[in-house]
């Protein structure tokens, strides 16, 4: 909603400038957080560099594959490099006592499947932010502010789905809640793919709310699964992993 208002008033660069004071205030408030208790455990710096290089080369290969001016060979080379770096990380992680994340975890489908589902759901769900603005402005002829209000419905759904997910996890369990979230995302995106110039705006808004609810259900329950799988000392890795699978999907 705020993005639509900023675009109407000052153009698209304002959407980026408004983040600067928000980031600075957040950084200042972070000084009020309590200091964590450090644990005397080794940090695998080489493994961290290998893992960072793996993901960077993978994401860069995906970006290059979408640029027509960049030869496709570059994307293939970077993808091959990412696979080589991943293999090197796995070998190292199996030799050190405290790896960043244990590769053996991914041998368990109960851990791997939710990670894959989160990446795929974010791949599908990002269509909302990537394509829906064009549909709202170019097809339905809404203003930037109007498009912002309609797009906000998806995030309103996420805000509703998150506490609902916490409630359902206690009642029906983590995995059924994850499945419900994925189902809601699919049930909303499928009819959105068939919307046109004659589709009522309220129907579009309702589908966006449904998609947001599904995303909220999935995110909370999935993060709960990952956090519960890893030992308490690796809870920071759990949060990073959930963000990583989201980024890969997007």
Characterise the protein shown here:
Helices cover about 75% and strands about 0% of the residues. With about 250 residues, it is mainly α. Helix 1 runs antiparallel to helix 8. The longest helix has 29 residues, at about 145-170. The relative contact order is 0.12.
Sequence-ordered SSE layout with sheet pairings:
Elements: H1 2-10, H2 13-17, H3 19-29, H4 45-64, H5 72-93, H6 109-125, H7 127-139, H8 144-172, H9 174-192, H10 201-229, H11 235-249
Helix pairs in contact: 1-8, 4-5, 6-9, 6-10, 6-11, 7-8, 8-9, 8-10, 9-10, 10-11
Quick structural overview:
By secondary structure, the protein is mainly alpha-helical. Helices cover 76% and strands 0% of the residues.
Element pattern in H and E: HHHHHHHHHHH
Report the average pLDDT across residues: 90
* Oligomer designation: single chain
Outline: globular
Please report which band the strand proportion falls in: under 5%, 5-15%, 15-25%, 25-35%, 35-45% or over 45%: under 5%
Look at the helices and sheets and give the structural class.
mainly alpha
Number of strands: 0
| Low-pLDDT segments | none
Helix content: over 70%
- End-to-end Cα distance, whole Å, is 22 Å
Main beta-sheet annotation: none
Number of helices: 11
From the alpha-carbon coordinates, what is the Rg to the nearest angstrom?
Answer: 21 Å
